[in-house]
Design a protein that fits this description.
Residues 51-193 form the GmrSD restriction endonucleases N-terminal domain. The chain is of the alpha+beta class. It folds into 2 domains: 37-181, no CATH class; 196-375, no CATH class. Helices cover 53% and strands 9% of the residues. The protein contains 15 helices and 6 strands. The chain has helices at 4-29, 47-50, 68-79, 103-113, 138-145, 162-176, 185-192, 196-204, 208-214, 225-242, 248-259, 264-285, 301-320, 333-343, 355-369, and strands at residues 37-43, 87-93, 96-101, 148-154, 328-330, 373-375. A 4-stranded mixed beta sheet has the order 1-4-2-3. It has a two-stranded antiparallel sheet with strand order 5-6. The longest helix is centred in the first third of the chain and has 26 residues, at 4-29. 27% of the residues are buried.
């Protein structure tokens, strides 16, 4: 029996399918999100001149993480002529590029040619261990100089606008790093959420007092854990104020996403609060500000969160009442801090990082230490 509705339904499905295929083909032909590239080969001996004006580490790149052995193995690979993967560059303007992928390789080569490190851990050419570039036999220097590194250049015409340019660069960066050295969460946030706030995190992570309190003075925080610590302060402060309930990773991700909308004034307020808070923490607790005990060797995130949020609340209260911090006496707060932590070790268990737990620790601090804060007016 002929069923008109069945035939009609079949025709509609066929039409929809054809329409989808047409849209797909049209999308492909129109080159939506199609990347325009060209290839290049750079002689190693000329890298210093070639990369003199290039940006080696744009915001979405990870920080340098190669140790000397890994750097040395790259040099050994060039000596024995092992094929090296191409680096990826993005054309900022004519003949000026930033390194999207391959920053470690380029930096290593530039450092080696500048005699900034000696080879170590070589297996095939172990005779060269301990030697810098200028100390290598001349024949080997010439051999390295003759080698090339290949580059794939993403041309500027790939992107139609600044926003699409950043989206494209982040997309390519993420794809290039899939399967490579796994990025830490903050490195991913750094790549995905560029802007004034992300620049602020990088700036504040270099604050001398902050680095001193964390023991980062003579160390490079290669995986951006210092930036994540700065972010923790802002994210937890916002979450406790607005009673947000999320896990720490989701909280930090959400705050970074929100930060894209921050204006210059917002960033300035945050900068001021952070620097004042770190200074007050150091002024009151000294170098042990973020430690659970005076004899502790390392600062702890749990104590850092609690102290920073408590100090920030004091600063905001004083500013609201128009009281200068220099008019306030903080009596024996260091001793009382340690006593408070020891009196409730369960509360200060590092396993509990939920916003509820952070708020409870700050409230407990305020209750235990409040009597030691005296306004001298």
């Amino acid at each position: 029996m002929f069923k008109y509705n069945d035939v009609l339904e079949k025709k509609v499905k066929e039409t929809n399918q054809l329409s989808k295929e047409t849209d797909i083909i049209s999308k492909y032909k129109n080159g939506e999100f199609r990347i325009v590239t060209e290839q290049a080969r750079y002689p190693l001996a000329n890298l210093a001149n070639i990369f003199a004006e290039h940006i080696l580490q744009p915001n979405y790149q990870r920080r340098r993480v190669w140790d000397l052995k890994r750097k040395s193995k790259l040099i050994e690979s060039f000596i024995i002529n092992v094929p090296i993967p191409s680096i990826f560059l993005y054309e900022i303007e004519f003949s000026k590029y930033e390194v999207m992928d391959g920053q470690q390789r380029v930096s290593t080569l530039l450092q080696f040619f500048a005699d900034e490190f000696a080879l170590e851990g070589l297996e095939i050419w172990h005779e060269l261990n301990g030697k810098k570039y200028s100390e290598l036999p001349m024949e080997i220097q010439k051999g390295i100089n003759r080698r090339y590194i290949s580059a794939t250049i993403l041309l500027k015409e790939t992107a139609e606008s600044e926003s699409s340019e950043m989206t494209m660069k982040q997309f390519v960066f993420e794809r290039l790093n899939t399967g490579g050295m796994q990025l830490d969460p903050q490195e991913i946030r750094n790549a995905l959420y560029p802007g004034k706030f992300n620049e602020l995190l990088i700036e504040l992570s270099k604050d001398k007092l902050f680095r001193k309190l964390w023991g980062f003075e003579n160390a490079v925080s290669e995986r951006m854990e210092d930036c994540e610590l700065v972010l923790r302060f802002f994210a937890y402060k916002s979450a406790t104020a607005h009673k947000i309930s999320k896990g720490i990773k989701a909280l930090l991700d959400t705050y970074m996403k929100k930060s894209i909308t921050f204006k210059e004034n917002d960033v300035e307020v945050l900068r001021s609060l952070f620097t004042k808070t770190v200074f007050l923490a150091y002024q009151i607790f000294g170098e042990n500000a973020f430690k659970s005990e005076a004899k502790s060797k390392k600062s702890e995130k749990m104590i850092y969160d609690t102290v920073m949020l408590y100090m920030a609340s004091i600063i905001e209260d004083l500013e609201e009442q128009e009281i200068d911090v220099n008019e306030v006496k903080f009596n024996n707060l260091s001793k009382k801090k340690y006593a408070a932590i020891n009196s409730n070790k369960e509360l200060f268990n590092g396993k509990y990082t939920a916003i509820k737990n952070v708020s409870e620790r700050v409230d407990f601090f305020e209750h235990e230490l409040k009597g030691s804060i005296i306004y001298d007016r």
